[in-house]
Specification:
Helix 8 runs parallel beside helix 10 and helix 10 packs across helix 11. The protein folds into two domains: 163 residues, Response regulator (Rossmann fold); 137 residues, Rossmann fold. It contains 13 helices and 13 strands. It is α/β, with parallel strands linked by helices.
Length: 315
Amino acid sequence: MKKTAAMILALVLTLSLSAAAMAEDTYRVGICQLVQHVALDAATQGFQDALKEKLGDKVTFDVQNASGDSNTCSTIVNNFISGGVNLIMANATPALQAAVAATGDIPILGTSVTDYATALDIDDWNGATGMNVSGTSDLAPLEQQANMLHELFPDAKKVGLLYCSAEPNSKYQVDVITGYLTALGYECVEYTFADSNDVASVTQNACDGCDVLYIPTDNTAASCTEAIRNVLEPAMKPAIVGEEGICAGCGVATLSISYYDLGYATGEMAYEVLVNGADVATMNVRFAPNVTKEYNAEMCALLGVQIPEDYVAIQ
């Protein structure tokens, strides 16, 4: 009887240890996406695909969309924390800021964030945050974007810089590219909208005052491309833009990264953190490996813009 009891006890212990091991090998990831549009959707999909390829059924996702509201981002993140997620993926700057404000313990990986030093108010930036945060940046080479504008519109005099004033990373891009455009001989004027309600009127002002527009990687603009196009087209004013999704909606050309690839790279970082125990505080923020010259064939035809042969048409 004692031997049988001992065997049963050993079996129960073995099963308990096996269950614990299985639990340790199972990961719950919360994904907070600021708003639904092509670029952010692609980043979220790339992130999930990367982790699914590596972990299969061992990873589950709680994907939540904040519909463009930073307060909703905070609610979503707090629900992740109370639900005991192993990692938070924050898609876009307000989602990242909400996650950082909510927890200093759970690893956070951002994506579609242009400049982490700006987003997190870090002065002595060295590539890693030194806190429970890392991720990927969607910053495309701004000097090359300025050169693209000059290549396509060398005779333009005034460039309207159109962006959302509530997005600090958009302001960062505008500040940087203004220096490059000014050096190329353009006069630059900023036109800012506070939210989607005044996008059309501000775009009209920009069209009335400028020869060509530049729109950075901007979430509000990305979700309002139809409204922007409805102004640009009758005004016959072209826009160089920061990423493919905005270009497909209202731009003529962009030097763009792949947001799917960016999200995928973020998923690979998540695997390093979850499975290999990488310290997110010391992981350098990573960038998209490639950029592509792309153009919107329909808008170019409507506005009479001639595109060089080394540009790729957006499908």
